[in-house]
Amino acid sequence: MKFTREEILSSIKGSIIVSCQALPGEPLYLEETSIMYLMARAAKIAGARCIRTNSVRDVLAIKEETGLPVIGLIKKVYDGYEPYITPTMEEVDALVQADSDIIAVDCTMRTRGDGLTVGEYLEQIRTKYQNILIMADISTYEEGINAWKCGVDLVSTTMSGYTSYSPKTDGPDYELARALAQALPIPVIAEGRIHTPEQARQMLNTGVHALVVGGAITRPYEIASRFFSAIQTT
Fold first, then answer.
1. How far is CA 87 from CA 67, 80, 94, 117, 136, in A?
2. What is the β-pairing status of strands 154-156 and 70-73?
3. pTM, rounded to two decimals
4. Which residue in 147, 62, 124 sits closest to 99, CA to CA?
5. Which of 98, 9, 89, 114 is nearest to 55 (CA)?
């Protein structure tokens, strides 16, 4: 099922997009099959109206299981590239073929191995695929503004704290989310270190369109680790 831009943005407004991801080396990652569709099933039952996931196999499995819009990305590391979220057209092509409803792309200002700027890379995507929805994963206010000027459909604070030059915080980057929500005429999605329902509520109060929550819902190792770290420091 294909969703229009308006249908997706309307359904996620004021809500939580659940990130269902497992990478090689993590407890819930299996080489032979994906189990992320089970996480997505639970998220849908709880009320999620959109899922964010990594890899073609998980996009396909989750779309079939849930019937919800899916934000697709592919994490891949290339020599000479600092960005690793959907960094080249090869990943974009694969996600389009998998029928991703939105494609998440690293739009930080970090070094790209192909020598393209963020704007040139986005233009390359738009030239080939005029109608796909693009989510820009950024780490700073300047990157968010730049991504909007380059024509993306949504801006997400995904990379805040994960680039060498963005602030490192234990919790969510409320300041960045608020500043972008006030400045941009397109939806701003808050993502990153939203660990509790209280933090989610506080983040929505910044004016963002929606939130992405992953580790606090779908990564049991991270959840368990936070509990053990807490009791060991008290």
1. 27, 11, 12, 12, 12
2. unpaired
3. 0.95
4. 62
5. 98
